[in-house]
Amino acid sequence: MAARLSGRPLTIDVHTHVLPDGWPDLRERYGVTGFVQLERDADGCSARMMRDGQCFRVVSENVWSPERRLEECDRAGVDVQVLSTVPVMFSYWARPEHALDLSRLLNDHVASIVARWPRRFVGLGTVPLQDPDRAIGELERCVAELGLAGVQIGSHVNGWNLDQPELFAVFRRAAELGAAVFVHPWDMLGRERMARHWLAWLVGMPTETTLAICSLVLGGVLDRLPALRVAFAHGGGSFPGTLGRIEHGFRVRPDLVATTAALPPRAYVRRMWVDSLVHDADALRRLVGLFGAERVCLGSDYPFPLGEARPGELITSLDELDDAQRRALLGGAALSFLGLSASSFA
Questions:
Q1: 322 with 35: CB under 8 angstroms?
Q2: Mean pLDDT of the chain
Q3: Distances 275 to 13, 206, 230, 300, 330 between C-alpha atoms, Å
Q4: What is the CATH code of the structural domain delimited by 2-33+64-341?
Q5: Could you tell me the pTM of the whole model?
Q6: CA distances from 150 to 44, 111, 183, 300 (A)
């Protein structure tokens, strides 16, 4: 951290994923299938995330090893990582009591890493959103007992979009607690039409994120909760590129679109945050112009292949950014989203 303290901007990666190095056999624990298990390879350096005998994803030790993360952060110049679980672990489909038990296991693990390295890691928990009462209870535990900065949630909860009335109490409690809410796409819609070419990740994820943003905006959630701090993964998905269409629809078909939101969609853009994970310089320029640098947080999706291999490289490649913009993108926007100060990491 010495280089940063001597003048380099604080660099915070808000979008990284972590897992424990193992957990109980959830099929045996809960008596049902569908949960993910981690099968470590003999070399100890890789593992397979398995679900009902099928490999969901091959991962390396940087998913579970904080020490390896710190080595890679130091090489990349990342001062702080914000840790959240892998979205497949949300388990919103499961019985609420099972999802709560798993959430507690995952959240305790994240909190243990943060407690050991408080100047290098910030934690976001996960909550069983299929049961809003249980979700609120675990949200309160994450913030009050575990010291986490907030929670990561999925882009929908089974058949509920994020403006579902049952979910409002969770968002209201997050706003009351000052908890950050990071929205990550998961369980993408239309997967039956996107089985080839990795389309669920390439097309489905940006669409899911756009649907989540529109639900919170057009559903009036941001009107009712102006203090809610919410950020969206992957540069807000397709939303920046389709905002003009959404805005036009709001104006020409208010009977269908402007049914709840008090203002046109563009008015809410600088009331939310997005990460910088767009893989394209012109797309990042669009984000900065639309949201403002103070609302775009460095995010890498570490340690997965669709992420940015060297976090922040796209940001630093934009020569036209001034010093204030660069500092905001690398760390300042993340601090405001998380509700933290730079002194926490000095």
A1: no
A2: 95
A3: 9, 13, 11, 8, 10
A4: 3.20.20.140
A5: 0.96
A6: 31, 11, 11, 19
